[in-house]
Prior knowledge:
Strands 3-4-5-6 form a four-stranded mixed beta sheet. It has a two-stranded antiparallel sheet with strand order 1-2. The protein has helices at about 5-15, 45-55, 110-125; strands at about 30, 35-40, 65-75, 80-95, 100-105, 130. The termini are far apart. By secondary structure, it is α+β, with helices and mostly antiparallel strands.
Amino acid sequence: MTERMSAAAFLAAKARGGKASKYNAVRTQGPDGSGGTREYDSKLSAKLARRLEDERLAGRIKGFIPEWSVPIGTADDGKPIRHRVDQLVIIEVLDTGDFVCRAIEAKGRDLPAGRAKRGVIRKFYGIPVYVTKNGEL
Length: 137
């Protein structure tokens, strides 16, 4: 099967020296949750990070951890299978050191494989992963 991409996506991939995302996502700079910046896999993920940074600066959340990598199983070769959740949002830190969090993913296209992986995270860890389609909370 042939992958297709727009001319703009092709030129963006060529400019950054790599292959374009198969869903035409454009890697984009955004806040990293600790006052710096980092590159996100898509404009939508960077938009979510900017929104979370605004929430952090306003004191409505304690912080966020970008691209939280969660083990969700083991492959046949014994290597761990992981899923990267776009943001782990730390809402509150308790006196005990425990914290209240919310896992959020920004998805332009919500595919069955992603839904299945989010289901595994909920089953194994009891943590639901919320999805935003527009980068808003």
